[in-house]
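Let us begin with a simple case.
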Amino acid sequence: MLKIHQLTKQFASGFVISLDIEVESGITVLFGRSGCGKTTTLGMISGLIDPDRGRIALDDSVFFDAGAGLSLPSYEREVGYIFQQPSLFPHLTVDANIRYGTDHQSDISDLVARFEIDSLLSRYPREISGGQQQRVSLARSLASNPRAL
């Protein structure tokens, strides 16, 4: 379960995000108008953006607790993150992009089959379509077996 308690992020513009939510395991959708804080919220959960106050915990792991002075770096949170625009490494093949962040010995065959990208493994991001890049990004995020995505 993801628990966000009294989480606050204030911007110089005066815009403030204030959250108190609990999310059960499963698929959850964050939606709202442009500029309402969806991406910032995901950034705070993943550790890419530092909140000002509050607490974020996933199951028994505390990611952020302002009162305790705790903020786990993003690489210790085990949270997969997929940007709106695919962010693949241009100098790596599709295979190497998927394996990035794993022990490089991982069996990725299930992900490759699930996302129908087996014919792309030796190609580079510039050689595949935007939709294919998105599928590779998703496979890469899942290859590290994140606790949350």
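The second case is a distinct protein. As before, the sequence precedes its structure tokens.
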Amino acid sequence: GRLVMNKLARILKHRWLDSSDTRRRVPDAMAQRLAARVAASEGRHTGEIRVCVEAALPLSYLWRLNRQTPMSALTRQRAMSWFGRLRVWDTAHNNGVLIYLLLAEHSIEFVADRALAAHVGPGQWQGMVDRLSAQLRDGRLEDGLTQALEEVSAVLVEHFLQPTDAPNPNELPNLVVRA
């Protein structure tokens, strides 16, 4: 009874939100400033960073919600799906990072490609999630994403510094995905 009602309430919350909610939370001017920060960051290291802000999960994900598959697992699966869809895995140095926000659940996922994941442990990623989460709770989405970009940039510079004499192609778009 109660489990079914909770699932139904959650599905309704996700169906209520759409990309217009994302665009309201991340208006064009903010998206442009964030894209410029991504571009500036990528000039300092060989990594690639993508930011994806999604209003709600598709129904196909929500139907799988149960005790064995909690919302946190569904959010992680969705972030991994975006990681593949946006080709973050497909970079020369295997050091791409996706910063994923799911507005309906106030969930955050950082997905790092294998070369970067080898250098940065789960605790360090969790610290970034916690700090971004605190900013979001305070209603400071842009400040939080800016801080997250700075933290991701710092680990990329530490492990994948861009040599000054080497070319540094921009392998992926810098635009913020608003879904």
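Strands lie at 48-54, 96-102, 107-112, 177-178. The mean pLDDT is 95.
Keep these points in mind for the review questions at the end of the chapter.
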